[in-house]
From TrEMBL:
Start and end residues of each stretch annotated as Disordered: 277-301
Species of provenance: Saccharopolyspora oryzae
Similarity field: Belongs to the PAPS reductase family. CysD subfamily.
Name of the gene: cysD
Lineage: Bacteria, Bacillati, Actinomycetota, Actinomycetes, Pseudonocardiales
Keyword ATP-binding (UniProt): yes
Name assigned to this protein: Sulfate adenylyltransferase subunit 2
């Protein structure tokens, strides 16, 4: 009798199936690649799904200009190692062109400004499907996503206008100008992702592991010292041993105190926490599920 598949084997099989379906059904897919842990796992899954052939689609990064340098170096190196085409589009270019305004205020972040840049990139390159690393466990708006999440000709997402997904049957039929976001990691949890990283030896940026860094506290979050986020009076820099559970802009991504320097130690930390990585470390997600749903309706990731 064949051995039963583990939970991780089932999740991997589901993700590989979706990647192959998208490659078969769509003309111009691409993979959204931020350099974070979820997109690193997506690249590994794409390798597995399409081996021994090389990955046939480009990786797309919407660069806000406020990224961690460690992540950008990792992004460039991994794309070169895999021999995939890296497409980088810039939020700064969208600001310079007057497409979006530079955000201001205490929690000013360019994350929402990414929407216009992303939609312009989709139109320019005629992408009809984008792989993303979103997971349903992250927050409630993402929990409404299908594996193939339909976007209309304006790039907008409507949770009431999504196709049924019965068993593993996916409807990839779209009209010109429409596109989908494909989420192979939909049913994964943060712990699943890290367990897969451990099993497959997936490489990550050093930010995900404990290191000494100058940080300051704002509204209960530890933010990295950076040139894009002025500190208020009284926000003193201190050096702490921290790591990042998720990777986003330096302006809104918080660190957590940690001594975990290995994948196994990170998994042990995750097992003990009761707060999602985005809820604990992303200032732009603290506005609530309704705010995230509004951003997604506008065409956000």
């Amino acid at each position: 009798m064949p051995a039963a598949l583990s939970r991780l084997d089932v999740l991997e099989s589901e993700a590989v199936h979706l990647i192959r379906e998208v490659v078969a059904e769509f003309d111009r897919p691409a993979l959204l690649f931020s350099g974070g842990k979820d997109s690193a796992v997506l690249l590994k899954l794409a390798e597995k799904a399409l081996a021994p052939a090389p990955i046939p689609f480009p990786v797309l990064h919407v660069d806000t200009g406020h990224n961690f340098e460690e992540v950008l170096h990792f992004r460039d190196r991994r794309a070169a190692e895999l021999g995939v085409r890296l497409v980088v589009v810039s939020v700064q270019d969208s600001i310079d062109a007057g497409r979006v305004a530079e955000p201001t205020g205490k929690w000013a972040s360019r994350n929402r400004a990414q929407t216009a840049t992303l939609l312009d990139a989709i139109a320019e390159h005629r992408f009809d499907a984008l792989f993303g690393g979103a997971r349903r466990d992250e927050e409630r708006a993402r929990a409404k996503e299908r594996m193939l999440s339909f976007r209309d000709a304006f790039g907008q997402w409507d949770p009431r206008n999504q196709r049924p997904e019965l068993w593993n049957l996916y409807n990839g039929m779209i009209r010109p100008g429409e596109n989908v976001r494909a989420f192979p990691l939909s049913n994964w949890t943060e712990r699943d992702v890290w367990t897969y990283i451990e099993r497959e030896g997936v490489e990550l940026p050093s930010l995900y592991f404990a290191h000494n860094r100058k940080v300051f506290e704002r509204d209960g979050m530890l933010l990295a010292d950076n040139p894009f986020l002025p500190r208020d009076p009284g926000e003193q820099l201190v050096e702490r041993s921290v790591r990042f559970r998720t990777v986003g802009d330096m302006t809104c991504t918080g660190a957590v105190p940690s001594a975990a320097t290995t994948v196994a130690e990170v998994i042990a930390e995750i097992a003990a926490t009761r707060v999602s990585e985005r809820g604990q470390t992303r200032a732009d997600d603290r506005a609530g599920a309704a705010a995230m749903e509004d951003r997604k309706r506008e065409g956000y990731f």
